[in-house]
Structure formats: C-alpha cells, structure tokens
Design a protein that fits this description.
globular; mainly alpha
C-alpha cells in the first residue's frame, strides 16, 4: 500500500493499480490547468501544444493521449453527465425543480477552489473564442439530452416539458454572471434564484 494525493492534495492510501489510476488523473488535471492558464494569458490560438506540454512537465505525445485537440482540453469535463446522474440520485418524491436544486447544491457546493477556477476559465474561453463556441454548442445539446433523460426517469409522464425544462435550465446556467472569485455556494445560490423563476412555468 502506498500514499498518493487526491485533487485537493490530501494523502490517500492506494494499491498499485489505484496508484496508476491516480497518477493518470493527476497528469490529466495538471495538463488541463496549465493549458487553461496559458490560454487565458496568451490567447487560445497563440498557445501551442508544445508550450502546454512543457508547462505540465509531460511530452506532447503524452498530452495527446489525454486530449486529442486543444479544443478538447477546454471543453473537457463539462459536467453534463455528472449533473444528470446527480438529478437521478435525488430523493424520490421531490418535484423536478427541487431535484434540480438538490443536484446543483450537491455538485457545486462541494467544488474545490481549483475546480471553481477551471469552470470560470472554461466559460471565459468559450465565450471569447469563436472556434470554441461553435464546438461548445454541440456539447450544450448533448447536456440538454442527458438532463432530459434524467428528468424523464423521474417524471416519465411529462416527456415534452422535461426537455423544455432541461433546455431552460441549461440556458439560465449559461446566462448567469460568474464573479472573478467564484464559490460553489454562491453559484448555487444564483441557480436557486433561477429555478424560482422557472417554477411557475413547470408545475408538477
């Protein structure tokens, strides 16, 4: 048994196989964070794969094992599937709006400062880089599909309004202003207000 560290730097005990998985995850996280930092500082187009690899202390070949393109680095970890799963796991009997609210608090309330910074960096890069925005549109549709399926699992008799609710929530999330120093709890509070706006349009 050996000690590794989780994303927050806290030590955890893992076996040989777990250590390999942990090292791969740490390498992926390091590559993405260094890339986001460089993209924000230099611009997306001006930043090269070689620069990212050097900053993350990996080879370009290793970088491409984790991310096939520069676009993939920015658009990775959109969280759509994770959010959909969180909606599915909310207690039975909750309304759709309350299930969404619970999922938001579960995911964003537990974010580390580094994860909050990554979300902010991703949003700023997507909104300021046309080639990323075009690819992100496809990702938005995928996230709406995943959330629609999760809502339909909870409310199978309302398939049409489930998709409308999923689209409305995703649109509101995209429209929310994100502060320079975001916190998961502050973001969740903003989503609470957005869900309160949606509630009258989506009665159970």
């Amino acid at each position: 048994m050996v000690l590794s560290a989780n994303e927050d730097g806290n030590p955890v005990s893992v076996g040989p196989e777990g250590l390999r998985v942990a090292k791969k995850r740490q390498a992926r996280v390091a590559i993405r964070r260094e890339a986001l930092r460089l993209f924000l500082a230099q611009g997306f187009a001006a930043t090269t794969v070689d620069q990212i690899a050097r900053a993350a202390n990996v080879s370009p070949r290793t970088l491409f094992r984790y991310f096939p393109t520069k676009q993939a680095i920015v658009l990775a970890d959109s969280g759509g599937d994770q959010f959909a799963q969180a909606v599915r796991h909310q207690p039975a009997g909750l309304s759709r709006i309350e299930a969404l609210r619970g999922a938001v608090h579960e995911l964003f309330g537990a974010q580390s400062p580094d994860e909050q910074w990554e979300d902010l960096a991703q949003e700023r890069l997507v909104t300021s880089t046309p080639e990323l925005a075009a690819v992100a549109l496809t990702q938005v549709r995928t996230n709406i599909d995943a959330l629609t399926e999760a809502l339909t699992d909870r409310a199978p008799t309302q398939p049409h309004t489930n998709r409308q609710l999923a689209g409305a929530l995703v649109g509101l999330l995209l429209a929310l202003d994100v502060p320079d120093q975001p916190t998961g709890t502050a973001f969740a509070a903003r989503v609470d207000n957005a869900l309160d706006v949606l509630r009258p349009s989506f009665p159970e």
